[in-house]
Structures are given as structure tokens and as C-alpha cells.
Design goal:
By secondary structure, this protein is of the alpha/beta class. 31% of the residues lie in helices and 25% in strands. It has seven helices and ten strands. The strands form two sheets. It has a six-stranded mixed sheet with strand order 6-7-8-3-9-10, sandwiched between helices. A four-stranded antiparallel sheet has the order 2-1-4-5, covered by helices on one side. The longest helix has 17 residues, at 177-193. The N and C termini lie far apart (56 Å). Mean pLDDT is 87; it is low at 234-255. The protein binds adenosine-5'-triphosphate and magnesium ion.
Length: 255
């Protein structure tokens, strides 16, 4: 059986008129279901531009972006929002968690947007936190978590609604190398166990060891597309080794 393509770029160009800059030049590639692909390339080469276009967060100047058989370039904003909400997860470099919501509430919020009932929301969000090794941290606020822990909450939020594909823009950039490697292995495990397709960008040579396909971007073009043999997960899932005493969040609501 032929493996389905989940993402297709057809001669996509992106100009930023304001800066008189061309970020992408007729870029074409496709991503198949289940692939674990890294976008590599120097700063300014166009990695974030590709991820933003792929997730429908931006529109190309020319060419087509097809995500899950839908042509993003011809969809209206509403349809795009629904597609993103139901099928796409996005992890940002800077986590983007709501500071006034707890870890659990941050994950639940994603489901609230979809209209999932409160009980089900809580159950699914707790399961997602457990999946990323953050069981027991649900009541903490982002400021009470380390960078790696915040990023794991952001990943839980990205996977809680069972997306087909997760885009991640430099998800390990703010982390030390040990935490970064654990996170990449977590992506890998989710890729294998939940069959989620991953496309992520990184500067880090370590990704070369973990990704099974590397798209090298240079100056707005794909310079190389290298397939590697699918790598089995090399290490067990990270677990929070040290459990700090629970810091109680400030009281925010009247009982
Ligand atoms: N909003 C914008 N307005 C004008 N130019 C932009 C804008 N966003 C990106 N660019 C330009 O487009 C090019 C590609 O940028 P992009 O952010 O995709 O690079 P990148 O590979 O993600 O870099 P980095 O590794 O530093 O994150 C760069 O030359 C950048 O200056
Ligand atoms: Mg970038």
C-alpha cells in the first residue's frame, strides 16, 4: 500500500515585500505519513518560513501548500483554523504557554477550543502530561517549571488533540544539550507509538543522529534531502527523576 503524503509544497515562494526579501524560492518537497524529518540550515535560510507556511500560519507568495489533502492557499480563515485545531500541533521555540494558566489548564485549553466537555478535557490533558513525563506537575504554573519541563507541557498541548502532524520550530533551542536530546527522543517515541508525523527545525547537529530524513535549507532553497534508515528509539522515555516538593500556586479564584 502506498504511504499517504501528508504535506506537499509545490514550487512555493515567499517574498517579504516590506523587507524586499525573498525567504523561499520555488521550494518543492513532500512529507509522508509517519516521517520524522528535520529541517536543517543556517540562520535566515528559511526554516521558520517553511514551518509557518506548512501549518497555515502564513500564506505563500507563489505556489501551493497542500496539508492533509487540503490546499491551504485556497482555504478561508475559518476552515484553516478548524483544520489546524483538529489535525495539527505546533511547538514553538519559546514554548508560548499562558503564564496565568497551570500546566494542566494550558493543555486543556487546546481541547476547550474544540468544545470538548470539561470532564473529558481533564482526563485527556492528564494523560497527555503523563505521556510527556510530566505527571504530577499539572498544578504548577509555567514560571514554576524549568525550560525543559515547560517545553514538555507545550508538547503535551500539541499532541493532546491527537494531531496527524506536529510542526516544531527549534523546539530545543532554549535547552541544554541533555534536555534537548531527551526531548528529541520524546518526539521520536511519540512518532513511533502514536504514529504522529513530525517536521521540526533545528540548528543542532544532534538531530542528525535522531531524524530519519534531513532537509537541508540554504538561502531559501532545498540544498539536500537525505533519507536515513529509520532509527529505533535509542533510550527510554525521560522521566522526572527528581520530584521537587509541590509549590502551591497562588490563589486565583474564589472557592
Ligand atoms: N516578517 C518578515 N519580514 C521580512 N523578512 C522576513 C520576515 N520573516 C523572515 N524574513 C526573512 O526571511 C528569511 C528567512 O527567515 P526564516 O525566519 O525563515 O529563517 P530561519 O531559517 O528560520 O532562521 P533562524 O535559524 O535564525 O530561525 C530571512 O532572510 C529573514 O530575514
Ligand atoms: Mg527560525
Amino acid at each position: 500500500m502506498e504511504v499517504m503524503e501528508v504535506l506537499l509544497f509545490k514550487e512555493v515562494s515567499k517574498d517579504y515585500a516590506s523587507a524586499n526579501a525573498t525567504a523561499l524560492k520555488e521550494v518543492s518537497f513532500s512529507v509522508k505519513q509517519g516521517e520524522f524529518t528535520a529541517l536543517a540550515g543556517p540562520s535566515g535560510s528559511g526554516k521558520s518560513t517553511i514551518l509557518n507556511l506548512a501549518a497555515g500560519l502564513d500564506i505563500p507568495s507563489q505556489g501551493k501548500v497542500i496539508l492533509l489533502d487540503k490546499d491551504l492557499t485556497s482555504m478561508d480563515g475559518n476552515a484553516l483554523t478548524i483544520l489546524r485545531r483538529n489535525s495539527v500541533g505546533f511547538v514553538f521555540q519559546s514554548y508560548n504557554l499562558f503564564p496565568v494558566l497551570t500546566a494542566l489548564e494550558n493543555v486543556e485549553y487546546q481541547l476547550a477550543l474544540k468544545g470538548v466537555s470539561q470532564n473529558k478535557r481533564r482526563r485527556l490533558a492528564e494523560a497527555a502530561l503523563e505521556e510527556v513525563g510530566m505527571k504530577g506537575f499539572g498544578k504548577r504554573f509555567p514560571a514554576q517549571l524549568s525550560g525543559g519541563q515547560q517545553q514538555r507541557v507545550a508538547i503535551a498541548r500539541a499532541i493532546v488533540s491527537d494531531p496527524k502532524i506536529v510542526f516544531a520550530d527549534e523546539p530545543t533551542a532554549n535547552l541544554d544539550s541533555t534536555t534537548a536530546e531527551k526531548l528529541l527522543l520524546l518526539f521520536r517515541t511519540l512518532n513511533e507509538t502514536k504514529k504522529i508525523t513530525f517536521l521540526f527545525s533545528s540548528h543542532d547537529p544532534m538531530v542528525l543522529r535522531i531524524a530519519d530524513r534531513i532537509l537541508e535549507i540554504c538561502d531559501g532553497r532545498i540544498k539536500a534531502d537525505t533519507l536515513r534508515q529509520k532509527q529505533p528509539t535509542e533510550a527510554p522515555l525521560p522521566n522526572p527523576v527528581v520530584r521537587l516538593p509541590m509549590v502551591l500556586p497562588p490563589q486565583r479564584r474564589a472557592a
